[in-house]
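USER: Note each token:
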Amino acid sequence: MKLKKLTIALFTAMLLAGCGGSKKIVTTFPPAPAWVKTRPTSSGYYIGIGSASKTADLNQTQQTAKQNALADMASDISINISTNSVLSTFESNSSFSEDFSKTIKALAEQDLEGYETVGNYEDLNNYWVYYRLSKADYQRIKEERKSKAVTKALDLYDKAITAEKTGDVRLALLSFIKALEPLKPYFADPLQVQYQGNYIYLGNEISKEITQVLSSIRIEASNKQLKIKQGQPLAAGSLEFKVSYKNGQPLNGLMLSGTYTETPLRISKIQTDNNGLASFAIDVVRSNKNTETLNATLNLENIANEATTDFMLRKLFNRFRAPEASISISILKPLFYFSSSETNLDTKLNPTPISEGLKRKILEGGYSTTDKEMEADYRINIIAATKSKGEAGNYKQTILNATISVKDKSGTEVYIKLLDNILGSHFDYQQAGMEAYKEAVKKAENTISREIIEVVVKGKSNY
């Protein structure tokens, strides 16, 4: 009986011990402070409150909350675009000003210092941090940094002005762009400084000087209008542009970008030489239009890329109007002259079938022919003859052989085609010969006319 009671007591104790071991430890958190529920306001401080969802890495959670708090504080710092600021120059383009405003906010977030931690809080799932920054301290630090940036920018501005006066336009533009770099965080501010006894708004003044320098660059075409035969290259130097400054001084080392309305240029970027000259080349004018245009523009991207690696400053510089010039190219279609000797069983044919068929297709293609050989750009010569091949049953058979060649003005053969053993059958030899000519005319109209145009007009290889 005692043993039974002891067993029951032991079992009960084990059961109670087992139940006690399965209980979960419940962590309690203090009530959330008021700043978690309602964002505070302050006339003397910028406020930044950030939160992050908890993860297994508590340190990472806290860092994320801190970053969010700094971003929140930066957004609390308002940006007012002064009427005498760089951004005011581009207010007409809202997207550009908006992009730059975002950049300035990001820079402001990076430069935040002197802030203090007011508090932090966590519950089961989230972590919060509360920062504040004295507006007076922020303004003082900002003015100190701005002063250093303005001093650096003013030095570069002065170098740019000096370079422009001595005629080094490229260095002037590079220095103006570089002068904008230290000012970038303050593009919304007026930045008034004293320069050579006068007060100027530095950022705005740099923008004005860039505009003035670019507007003083002249790009002139050596030939404003050219005439060229289709299928012909343009003479070397005919697509030349001269770049000079307002006093007529040639500008070297500037990149021009060329665009041709017919097709992309093989080499579209040319740098000016010591005489300020840059020449483009077009291998062959193939266009079926009456006019095409070659345009040359000062390549601002090349200058911006050399001056800075900052994407937004490059974007800003590319918004300035670049000087440009153009050449109008009038396209004339070539004239063709036909000569032909076509016989059927030693009898001369008039009209000549192959010549007439080929001429018809050339005219349909929009080209012209002439009866004066000296006027022609190309001479098409046709020699064709048939001869008897014998009989096959009741049919008489002939074969036709022909040579079709094309020569240019210099007498150079640019195309030749041989038609060999074209068969013609009929009850009569003469008619058999004409049947062979019909087959030859089909080849001339359907294939040879296209090949001649391809070779003559489009500059393709001989067939």
Q: What stands out?
A: The domain at 35-136 is CATH 3.30.1660 (Dodecin subunit-like). The chain has a mean pLDDT of 88.
